[in-house]
Amino acid sequence: MSKDDRDSIPVAIRNKVWVEAAGRCEFRGCNVHLWYNNITGRVTPFGELAHVIGASRRGPRGNWNSPKLQTDPKNLMLLCKKCHKEIDFGNNIAEYPAKVLFEMKKEHEERIKFLLDTPRDKTSILKFSCPIKNNTIVINNESVYNAVLPKYPDSLPAYWHTIEVDNFDYSDSHWQYVISLIDKEYEKVERRILNTEINNLSVFGIAPIPLLIYFGFKFNDKLPADVFHARANNLPEKRFNWIDSDKNVITKYTVETIRKTNSKKVLLLLALSDYLEQDKYQNIVEDKDFNIYKLSIKSPNPKFLKSKIDLNTYKYELRGLLNMIQKDCGKNCEIHLLTAIPACIAIETGRMILSTKDPEILIYEYFNGSPQIVLTVNKIH
């Protein structure tokens, strides 16, 4: 519609359309924010009001009722510029008859009403991404919004607590650099916690496993947090949504003592995404008097984790195992940690490590098929 047509719509009617659309594009599948710049964080309205029945009889989908419906909010959709052009441009018009557009408007506004009618609590978003073996990692903001429902983020994406690493070559300097980024972000979060600005954290992380464990250790279990599981086979916008699985089917974890000695050195194997048999850790224990413990499942595989129940059960089992290790080997033992675990399990592993109770934990990563120590958690100075 022309600028003159837009100007003829009363402010009260415009506001009503914006409010009912929650400031988002109503075109099916778009849903983009239209009231702020996602890059700069500045509040700037980008939305356009589009007529379903044309603003004039000669306009797109126009008919004899056009003059009467020109300022009717039921005949107006909030769209982004791209989607507005899509429905009103040339041959596209035939693909978007009034019936289809009215359905889109109704679906969108009913969804908004449902979400707003649902009691919700706010949550602070914490994101951490770092390349894994040269693969760039992107945590989609839309996937965050979908995952935290029925909670809602306490700020716009531009103000979320975000640690994004663009380049990581697994060198000693890069491990230490990323650790410093985690430490700096923790200081920001800690200040907000002390000022009672944060009551709950929603945590999203995809990165090399040792870094995720350190990340979880820093953002420990002193504050209520929901750690979300990234599923590679899911749609990008729903990557962190849990599967609606059978609640009666719960993953059973097994704890095994493989070797018991009088040594203070302990090898702890977390074998959930893959098997960790002797050939994978022989280089660690060779010529050394190690105690060896393993936390595993019947058939380790990358897709075993299905629900929050599985994640919470893991936390319980790990905490019990750490207590047992200290009972068997003493509080001053030294734990060497070798893992095959998903990202969210790695974060929760770090969160379960207690700085005032647990011993020093040395974390391994594979290089050229051989495990090597890359960082230490709860380091004893």
Concise overview:
With 381 residues, the protein is α/β, with parallel strands linked by helices.
Secondary-structure element pattern, one letter each: HHEHEHHEHEEHEHEEEHEHEHEE
Would you tell me which CATH topology of the largest domain applies? Answer: Dna Topoisomerase Vi A Subunit, Chain: A, domain 2
Secondary structure class reads: alpha/beta
CATH architecture identity of the largest domain? 3-Layer(aba) Sandwich
Mean pLDDT: 90
Approximate strand percentage: 15-25%
Count of beta strands:
13
Name the poorly predicted regions.
1-7
Radius of gyration: 27 Å
Note the total helix count.
Answer: 11
CATH class of the largest domain: Alpha Beta
* Range of helix content: 25-40%
Shape: elongated
* Spatial strand arrangement across the major sheet: 8-10-9-11-12-13
Largest sheet report? 6 strands, mixed
Q: What's the number of structural domains? A: 3
N- and C-termini, Cα separation: 69 Å
Protein name: SAVED domain-containing protein
Pfam families: SAVED
Domain SMODS-associated and fused to various effectors: 187-370
InterPro entries: SAVED
